[in-house]
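Tutorial, part two.
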Amino acid sequence: MRKMIDDLKRLFDYFGKEREGKISRNRIVFYLAVFFISLIVNRFIFSQYISDNLRVPLSQSRLLFINSNNPYGENVQNHILGLADEEGWDIDEMSVDFEEPVYDLIIYFPFALIGNYQWAGSLFLTVNQICIFLIIGMLFQLLEWNANNLSMTVIYLACAASVFFIGNLLNITVTIIQLCLIVASIYFDQKKRSTLSGVFLGLSFIEPLNLFIFHAIILIIFFTREKYKILIWTFITITLLTIFSYIFVSDWIMEWLKTLFLTPRKFPFLSYTEAIKTRYTFEASRLLNGIPIILTTWMMLEIRRTPKDNKREWIWLLSLGAIFNYYIMIQSRNSASVLFIIPLIFLFIVWWEKVNRWGKIALVLVLFILTLGLSVLHFSGLKSLNNIEMEIILLIMSIIFIFNIYWSRRWIIDPYMIND
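Running the prediction step on this input gives:
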């Protein structure tokens, strides 16, 4: 007990008297202040815009971890539909069909313990906002982007205002958290902390199908770079999550597979054209069934021929993979569009290093059009990215991104040409 008191005294002395301790103390106070201010702003301003769809996983999580009810069961689905009808929730009825691994609900459980939905949703929103700034910050560090504080702040805000983030924020998905965990895995790999990198990558498999192609690319890159320790810790983390889930639902893997195969709503359990019909409600030509094969083959060829000796080379690969994942893994929702932030930031930084002062100003203007401009368009008239108009805009952006990704390839593979 005395030793504990002495340790606490030394800690308080460190924060109160030493220069580095005071800096750390001020940072902690600043971050806590930002967190609580964001939480309060979200509660009293933005909570009214949070989708009622968040109520579904919160209810499923509560029923699973407190009442030991199987989320795949019809009784749970009917119970949630009854609550929705009784309390007037505005939800998509398909959302009550649980189609993810049981451990996906672990993410929602801390928020499910909060009795007031507005506060629970506001806290979930705040956590996602923190993840957004962590994603942007880690990508800036991975790409070794150096700019003055004003430029850095402006670009931070522009990227955070991207429709890829905002759409997922208000529609309430865990994809932003997934992306944060993935980027953290890459970040800690660069810091030579393989165990932490593997754990973060394993945790990012909470919804494995949504980002399946993107995950596969990362695993292949780690394998080709002989990062076996990361892969082992990824496997260990997924295994522990699986075992933990067995405590609550002993046959959850079979239940999950039955859901995927017997009531398929996702590619590849539906044909590609059927998945398009499920998402966009129109018939598509059977010729489109070749798109996943073409894009997957294309991606595999790039993985094979592209060097992976430095960060920029394999972030180049991930930028291409982010776009391909969106168009291969057609899902009933569009949350995988959050991955587009990777090629957006990557291309911005590559071009920033290439152009002069006026070019930088033009680049910032283009960035604001592609981020804040699209967000305003999205929420002023278009109700969802599932609308065909917004999907056409995303397709045009994808083509522009791919063109620029290949245009920048020689600067990435031959970094000495960056100032040519």
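Residues 381-386, 415-420 have pLDDT under 50 and may be disordered. In part three we will examine how such features are distributed along the chain.
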